[in-house]
Design brief:
2 helices; elongated; single chain
């Protein structure tokens, strides 16, 4: 049995061979609607973020920490 002929590897063309299938998979993922429990969670998170971003009414500024206390 003969060994197959070596196929030259072109490092520039390889990513291009993956681009179209990856683009199709990404389009499928982003067009799929979220399950209802995840949509509800995203709505709650968005509302919480909006509450934290509002300026205080007395003109004072607050600085929020990006650190999570555990």
């Amino acid at each position: 049995m003969r060994c197959p002929a070596p196929i030259p590897f072109d490092g520039m063309k390889f990513p291009l061979t993956l681009a179209h299938p990856l683009r199709n998979v990404f389009a499928d993922v982003v067009s799929t609607p979220l399950p209802s429990h995840l949509a509800a969670l995203m709505t709650r998170l968005s509302a919480d973020r909006d509450d934290h971003l509002e300026e205080p009414s007395d003109g004072a500024t607050t600085k929020t920490s990006g650190r999570i206390d555990r």
